[in-house]
Design brief:
- It is a single chain.
- This protein is 44% helix and 18% strand.
- By secondary structure, it is α+β, with helices and mostly antiparallel strands.
- It has two domains: 92 residues, no CATH class; 85 residues, no CATH class.
- It has a three-stranded antiparallel sheet with strand order 2-1-3. A three-stranded antiparallel sheet has the order 6-8-7. A two-stranded antiparallel sheet has the order 4-5.
- The longest helix is centred in the first third of the chain and has 11 residues.
Length: 180
């Protein structure tokens, strides 16, 4: 979890303005989101940075951030959502790593409400496995779906079993989720 916190604390955005850009200047500054307590504090820093313009249109020219935030529509060249701080805090306080959040949204898309997204992850996350076959075998063992006294001459084709099981599950980057 330490690496997750470090990554989330290193999220940064390069903020310029469209006016400066159209005049041939890329003046702006990299702003580390962890330096600000909330979106309002972050927005005040941007206003101060570009106080030389009367009504600046901010341009988020570059950002070092997880694709999850783009997928959720929290950041683009012309927009940064006030919800970005809420999502960062939810991930930090969650019992799931950022990779799990990314895998879930890769499988099922995103939700407007971050608490609903977190609840869906909690309800459907099955764990991390090296392959569909490994997942299938572990799931059937944990649910006592394999008789303990299975004769040795009966074998399980894990590839086919996994293929059939995966009709009810989704996976991304080794993370498995129950479909809902």
């Amino acid at each position: 979890m330490a690496n997750l916190s470090i990554f989330l604390d290193e999220i940064q955005v390069y903020v310029g303005t469209y006016k400066k850009y159209s005049e041939g200047s890329i003046f702006g500054k990299w702003l580390l989101l962890s330096d600000y307590s909330d979106f309002q504090d972050f927005h005040e820093a941007i206003k101060e940075l570009h106080s030389d313009e009367d009504d600046p249109e901010y341009m988020y020219q570059d950002y070092e951030i997880s694709p999850l935030f783009e997928r959720m529509g929290l950041i683009s060249e012309c927009h940064i959502s006030s919800q970005i701080f809420e999502v960062i805090e939810a991930i930090k306080s969650s019992s799931y790593d950022l990779e799990v959040w990314e895998a879930f949204t890769d499988c099922f898309g995103t939700y407007e409400d971050v608490s609903e997204l977190e609840q869906k992850i909690q309800d459907s996350y099955m764990g991390e496995y090296g392959s569909d076959e490994e997942f299938a075998e572990q799931l059937l063992i944990e649910t006592d779906s394999i008789p303990r006294n299975l004769p040795s001459y009966i074998y399980i084709d894990w590839e086919r079993t996994a293929r059939d099981l995966m009709m009810d599950y989704s996976a991304s980057n080794g993370h498995y989720f129950r479909c809902f």
